[in-house]
Amino acid sequence: MVTPPEFDEIAWETGPDVGFGVARKDTQNPLGNNVFIGDAGYLISLESAEAWVRELYLARLEALGVRWVYAVQGPNQVVYSNYEIGNTKIAAALQAQVTSATAFVAVAAHSSGSYVAHELLDQLATGFDPSGVTDQKVVYFDLDGGQGGLDQTSVARLKEAHFVAARDAGTGTDSPNKASMQSGAATYPQKGSYAELDVSGSGCNAGAAWCVHMTLITTKPHDPADASGPEDYGDFVGRPVSAAWLDLAAL
Prior knowledge:
Elements: E1 22-26, E2 34-39, H1 46-61, E3 66-72, H2 87-97, E4 105-110, H3 113-125, E5 138-143, H4 152-156, E6 158-168, E7 173-174, H5 178-187, E8 192-198, H6 209-213, H7 229-234
Helix pairs in contact: 2-3
């Protein structure tokens, strides 16, 4: 087996051909030809999204046979009303990257990044995947996000969908979009499931729902009283990346 370069030795590809707000990397992983797309939350920079995806790759994705990784910056509006992210470029690139050797395309979207992910899923279902290479291969993780833009047509093409909330059982504090995650699983029972991760020990204060929200990115958020987006996406020193949600799927 050929040993690939270290992850950090491979430059992120960006620019017009990759898509606005998108970075991708061919890790050359010899363990598989799977794909991971990470959609970051509201106003999270591309650099921070890259840092998050890097940590996930080193912690879990490499061993799962992921070769192609995408980092997607957060939308500039909470509900992604400007549609500025270059999802069409991702859809086009997947036509060559996804082959018969690809077991899954994992799409993980946190918070407002879910609206960005839903645009991509809709595109793949409505003409941007003419050969059907992603049909029944996409495993979607909605990490305490929303439901806007998701519909039966796009969900029918998924392999699995997991709607994930978090709860700090020690303080009895739920992540703020728990009801939305429960609704998603109930709306799409043919592919969807609801999961609630116990994040006791996260260090979040009692009642700090937005801190609990960030436990789907980092196991120990920086601000125990609130969300701290740039730090939680970008600094994982002594704060392991949250990856337990990956165990919800048969990857």
